[in-house]
Amino acid sequence: MKKDKEYNKVIGYNKNTLEVFVCDYTFEHTPDFKGATGSILMPLSERQIEDYNDVDYVIERFEDCDIFANLEETIIDELEEKFSEENDIDEWIEKGDEEGFYNLRTRYIEVNLELAMYNHKKELAETEINYCDGAFPFHDNGSAHDVTVKDTEILEIAFVMKIVDYECIGGGRCFDKALFDDKDFVSLDDDAVAEIKKYEDIN
C-alpha cells in the first residue's frame, strides 16, 4: 500500500519566530510508516538580503564551511614565491648571508600574511556574490515557490514587514506535536493541519 497526497502549500506560521511552514505531501507506505514532509522558511526583507550580500558576512559563512581550511598554507607559498622573485637568493649566498635571506623572507610573510589572506577571501566572496544563483550566496529558498501572493500578503501583515524573498532553514519530517501545540503557531489551513496530525499520529 502506498498513498501519497501532494499539498505544496503554506499551512501556517509561528508569529514569534516568523517561521513559515510549507507542507509538501503526506505519505503512507504502510500503517507503521507514514507521515508528512515539508519545509521551514524564513521571510526576508530587502535589508536582510543586502546584509547577506555583505562581503564580510559571506567570508564568515565560508569560514563556517571550512572553505579556507588550507588557505594560509597556500598564501604562504605565494608570498615565498613573490619574495624570491624580488630577492635573488644567490646574491645573499655570495655575500655569505643565506640566513639573512630566510630571516627577511620570514619577516616579509609575517607582515603581509593577514592582508593577503583577507584579500583572497574578499575576492572569492565578491565572486560568489556577483555570480550566485540565488538572491545571495548560499541562498536556498526551498519550497518558496509554493508560497502564493495571498500567503505573502497575510504574512506581511502578521510579521509587519515587506517580504521580498524566503530562505529555507529546515525541512523533511518537520511537523510535530510541539509545533502545533505552540501558542504562537497560526494555522492557515485547518484541514491540512488536521491531515498532517493524522499522518504524524499527533493527538
Structural commentary:
The protein is an alpha+beta fold and 203 residues long. The chain has 8 helices and 5 strands, in the order βββααααααβαβα. It has helices spanning 46-52, 55-64, 71-86, 89-94, 98-131, 149-159, 177-181, 190-199, and strands spanning 3-14, 20-30, 33-44, 165-172, 185-187. It has a 5-stranded antiparallel sheet with strand order 4-3-2-1-5. The longest helix is centred in the middle third of the chain and has 34 residues, at 98-131. The radius of gyration is 27 Å and the shape is elongated.
Secondary structure topology:
Layout: E1 3-14, E2 20-30, E3 33-44, H1 46-52, H2 55-64, H3 71-86, H4 89-94, H5 98-131, H6 149-159, E4 165-172, H7 177-181, E5 185-187, H8 190-199
Antiparallel strand pairs: 1-2, 1-5, 2-3, 3-4
Write a concise synopsis of the structure shown:
The chain has 203 residues and is an alpha+beta fold. The chain has helices spanning 46-52, 55-64, 71-86, 89-94, 98-131, 149-159, 177-181, 190-199, and strands at 3-14, 20-30, 33-44, 165-172, 185-187. The chain contains 8 helices and 5 strands, in the order βββααααααβαβα.
